[in-house]
Amino acid sequence: DPDSGDNGLLHYSLVRGRTDEFDINENTGQIFTVSVAGKTGTFNLEVQAADQGTRRLTARTTVSVTVDSSSSSNIVMLVLNQKINVVERNSAEVQRVLEDKLGWNVYIVDIYSKETERKARSSTDETQVKIIAFDEAHQEVPAEDVKRKLREQKGGIEEELEKVFSASVSAAIGEAPGAPASSELVAAIVLGVLLAGTFIAFLAYVLLDLRRKRKYGKQDLVKKVKIMEGIDNPWAVDKNGSLKILEKPEHMNN
Prior knowledge:
alpha+beta; Immunoglobulin-like; 3 domains; elongated; Cadherin-like_sf; calcium; transmembrane
């Protein structure tokens, strides 16, 4: 808006769409997720920009947001000693405190507890908050940098969150679940297993074949030895166990 003063001051808002899963920075218009864990697909959001003049002028547009199933490796988990329903209710203030202390744009990816039952959700004093930070160029801040800054600002963060929750707060860095293996890695693992299985089957076949050849080779050798013994020995045992003289064939007498 080229106007000056209030007529050029724009505020952004989501007027239609998945407002429970997405939110927008009213001053910059930047859209971010609130909770899309386990969801994929394209979401259409209607965004409104309004100036702050006496006669407010507005304009709207539709923004399509595509959520894929991959997860960032720069997500950091912050563990708070607060009930999950309390953290959820004050998520905007938690985000504000983190942005103020870290100096980056911070978005809360997910808020969850190990306990899922309603009664446990209000009684378990431990909540995991997944966050991701973006710098001024809207690039993800490496997880290790976020963790380092969280450690440096731990005291200040806890002090400000105590004002939000009106209670003593402990903030610790947790271990976020690892990203799932890429399809290329999975394919490589499967191919490796198949090749290993094929090699083992081939090796087993070779060993069995060698054993079979050795077995039949021994049998042939025994037969040859028996034949040679029968020729060299003029006496042989018949099938009843009695001795008999081996008679030479007539053609040998001749």
